[in-house]
Amino acid sequence: MIDLRSDTVTCPTPAMLEAMIQAEVGDDVFGEDPTVQALEEKTARTFGMEAGLFCPSGTMTNQIAIRAQTQPQQEVICHRNAHIYLYEGGGLAYNSLVSVRLLTGERGVLKAEMVDAAINPDDVHFPPTSLVALENTMNKGGGACYQLNQIKEIAEVCQKHKLALHLDGARVFNALVTTGDEPAEYGKYFSSISVCLSKGLGAPVGSVLVGSHDLIKQARRVRKVFGGGMRQAGYLAAAGIYALDHHVEKLREDHQRAKVLAEALQDCSYVTSVLPVETNIVIATLQDTTPQHFLSQLEKAGVKAVTFGKQDVRFVTHLDFLDNQLDQVVGVLKKLNRQFA
Fold this sequence. Notes:
By secondary structure, this protein is of the alpha/beta class.
C-alpha cells in the first residue's frame, strides 16, 4: 500500500534507528538527558533563538506557546483554516481560555494589513488582542509558503502593538527549502516557533518549541501541567538530531514528486482544479464523484489519500515515497480516469 495520507506515516531509516540506539540518555524531567539538551540547543541555534523545549507533538508545542504568551479572556489572531483552530481539539479555548479572531487570506497566508485591522481597540467590550499565529507551510492552503518579507511586515505590526508572534512550523523546513530563506532569520521576527520533526523530516516522534530563555522556562512549567514531561527521551531526540542533519535537503525530492503528482491529477477528467504546488502537499478538487468514492477506488488500487473538504482530496509526498511508487500512483490515476470517464 502506498500511503500518501500524510508525511507523518514515515518510519525511521536504518541510519536513524542506529543513531537512536546509540543515544546517550538520562532522565529529562530531572534535566539529565544530554541528547534532549543537544536537540533543544541545536534547534534553537538553527532558528536564531535562545532556548528550546522538546515535546511529544506539534499540537503540544503550539498549545504551550499560546498558553505561555496569553492570559484568559485575551484574543489570538489566526487564519480561519489554521491548524491551531481546526485540528487541535479546541485547545485554544480549553487550555488557554482565549477567544480567536479568524481571518481569511489567500491559500491561508495572512498579510500585515489584515492583521493590523483585526487588532481590537482598548475597550472593555472587546478581548485584548495578545498574540498572532502564522502557519508555515499552510496545510489547508496546499503547502503555501510565507515569504520572509511578509513575515517581517507582520512582525512589525506585532511589535508596534506589543503582540507576541507565534509560528506553527509544522512544515517549516519545507518552506525554507522552497524560499531559500535562512532559518536564523526567523528568530528576528517570531517570539516562539514550533518546529516539527515527525513530518517531512521523518523522525518518529516530536516537536521542539524555541524562543527566549524566559519563554522556554515558562513553557517547561506548562509542559509539566500538560503531562508532556518524558524520561529517557534522548532515544527520540537522537532521531530529531539525525533528521536535522540528514533529511532537510531531501525535502526537495518530495516537492518535485508532488509537482509531478499534481500534473497527473490536472490531466484527469474527474479533477476540476489543483492548488498550486510549492512544497509536498497536493490538494485536488473533484467533480462527478465524491471524495469518499474516489478514495475507496484509489485504495482498492493500492493508494491511500484523505478527504480535505466537501469535494477536495489531499496527497502528501514524503521520505518513504520514491520514484517507482510515484510512477505507480500516476498509473492508478490514469486508470481511474478511464473508469470515471
